[in-house]
Write a structure and sequence with these properties.
The structure is a homodimer.
Chain A (H helix, E strand, L loop, with lengths): L3 E8 L6 H11 L12 H6 L3 E7 L5 E8 L7 H9 L8 E7 L2 H4 L8 H6 L7 E6 L6 H13 L4 E4 L11 H15 L4 E3 L6 H13 L4 E4 L1 H4 L1 H10 L4 E4 L11 H12 L3 E5 L9 H12 L9 E5 L7 H8 L4 E3 L2 H4 L5 H14 L4
Parallel strand pairs in A: 5-6, 5-12, 6-7, 8-9, 9-10, 10-11
Antiparallel strand pairs in A: 1-3, 1-4, 2-3
Helix pairs in contact in A: 6-7, 6-15, 11-12
């Protein structure tokens, strides 16, 4: 019987102190009090974190595995991240590198709904395409006009920019109605993904509005909304494709493959948007590869989650990206298409045709 | 008319590139697309972020002030943090240092309910005292036994450890009932603060349970629950004292005085718990001073928020801490009291008497 899960931290520390430091993290992330002062044998045996392994890394840090008690997580998204990194997030010598969970934990969380295969089909022969609706500041009709052009460029998906919320100049209900209509009219094959924001109630109302407009997808920023909100929306909407956006997720000293790949998938994301290497953000190729792997690999009975590399991409990079990720992926090009202005439809068509043609020759 | 708010970032950059870098952050945190491709004059004038100031800092970084449009925030907690740091959280050369908001924004958020004066009284002559109920892993009666001893030590408040959630070995309802009873019987003056966790609905139910047990305070970890959840619970419970816990807040490259002081207060925290300098965490004295100042200074019409320094404190440090923070503060000592084991009541009395005696001689 496994009553523990394994958490890997990278710790900046000198060799003489690492054992004590590892032990202090094991205590911080479990009982958070002097172990000497605990009388209860059950707590000592089953609750206090255990240092399972310490090994030196090449960069002078130490990789430390700590086994935490499953029972402490309450099998809930917020409390799970709390156990993984609640207080130690404040220790700037500590990075949360990875975590391995037994099936008993994995089965308690929802995982993706439609997931990668729901989005892409079981026998996917090509990657999916997506662009982002911007800029914030436009009224609903202004955004709808751009959505119409992008849809005419034959995209599979058009998602809201993560800056589109429920602002006075473009309230959610009007914006989504106008954009859904524009996309539907321009290209019945293109699916529109509105960004839902605010608290759990607000997001529920927004998903209802999306449904009322015939939509079956929504985007959420889990680190802003709170991981428990992602889990709740997933359970309540098994049929809606939930796209996770990385806003506010980058500041954390949590390895992106764990947070954006593994944990977002576990709590219910069908697709995970992340900054591709070589764009406006600093992820390395290895980070991107590990993240995509964590999102879509076989993992207990959890459906795979679709990786969506983005952030300063251009149609020129299509072949290289598909070479790198394979075709079980969605490519997202936002500003790179909008920058074409009057030639936006042609530039979008160039993008989507390039993706469609890949591997055909 | 002010239609902008000022955000200060610290950027690691060479002098030759800082202007372009500052401009790119202003675009990233607003329209997030090439500005050349924007036709709409209203968006160019009123939505695109503006670099207002760049100055070199002593440590080789640059302090950059960017003015963002108020209208983009939708006057909602999640969207406000999104505008402040959503995507730029992923740029590891950027730290979110501070933000200044006009009254028109401040008035749209709830701010504290009872706040500092509600907790401490208008003419506070002494600081407040608090301890933390631990360890996780104990059943309700085990925690209640410790709560009883702490209350006998004449504390003003006893808060749940942030690791106490809704676990099978101590479900929230049973735990809170047992601990509230124990505290009430041991010392009718001591107030118990249960930790609420999970999604917005779960936290609402837990606050209802707290009320049913005669309690008028609750603790929440806003970076785990999501900032919009803090705002929602505040609006729905103007009479409940909400204590904000910093779990998961430390990993972000957001200056603690801004996040734990200013923003938690703006969104509704009555008290903000943070790691004191010289304890188990790495905050400097200056960070702690700035954080306490941000929490309790005069700020538009927002009630002041009570600073609660904690994290590896001991009764020996009482005078020094009160010297440092003054008496508009709550001192929180957790493990330091529990470590006394059989002498826990005496150690707690030593703590509370020291706080009561401060400044009397």
């Amino acid at each position: 019987m496994t009553d523990r899960f394994a958490v890997t931290y990278h710790i900046r520390c000198d060799a003489a102190s690492i054992e004590a430091r590892a032990l202090s993290i094991a205590v911080e992330q479990s009982v958070e009090m002097p172990v000497d002062a605990i009388d209860e044998p059950a707590v000592l045996d089953h609750t206090v974190g255990r240092v399972a392994d310490i090994r030196a890394m090449k960069d002078g840090q130490f990789e430390v595995r700590i086994d935490l008690a499953l029972s402490t997580t309450g099998l809930e998204a917020g409390q799970l991240i709390n156990m993984l990194f609640g207080n130690s997030s404040i220790h700037d010598d500590v990075t949360l590198a990875d975590a391995d969970f037994p099936d008993s934990l994995l089965e308690a969380f929802p995982g993706p709904g439609p997931g990668l295969t729901g989005l892409q089909g079981v026998n996917a022969t090509r990657a999916l395409t997506c662009s982002a609706l911007k800029p914030q500041g436009l009224p609903p009709q202004g955004l709808a006009k751009i959505a119409r052009k992008l849809a005419a460029g034959d995209l599979d998906f058009i998602k809201d920019d993560h800056g589109l919320a429920d602002q006075a100049y473009a309230p959610f209900a009007q914006r989504v109605k106008a954009c859904a209509k524009a996309v539907r009219e321009a290209n019945p094959r293109t699916r529109y993904i509105p960004s839902v924001t605010g608290n759990l109630d607000t997001m529920r109302q927004q998903i209802k509005i999306a449904r009322d407009n015939g939509l079956d997808a929504a985007m959420i920023a889990p680190m802003i909304a709170g991981l428990p909100s992602l889990e709740a929306l997933r359970r309540e909407n098994p049929d809606i494709a939930l796209f996770a956006h990385p806003a506010l997720a980058g500041a954390s000293r949590i390895a992106p493959p764990l947070l954006l790949g593994k944990l977002f998938r576990l709590f219910g994301a069908d697709a995970t948007i992340f900054p591709n290497h070589g764009g406006r953000f600093g992820y390395s190729p290895q980070t991107c590869r590990d993240l995509a792997h964590a999102a879509r690999r076989d993992w207990s009975s959890l459906a795979p989650c679709l990786p969506v590399p983005a952030g300063g991409m251009s149609p020129e990079r299509v072949d290289e990206m598909l070479e790198f990720y394979g075709t079980r992926v969605m490519l997202l090009i936002g500003g790179g298409l909008l920058a074409a202005k009057d030639a936006m439809i042609q530039e979008t068509l160039a993008f989507t045709r390039k993706v469609h043609a890949y591997g055909r020759t």
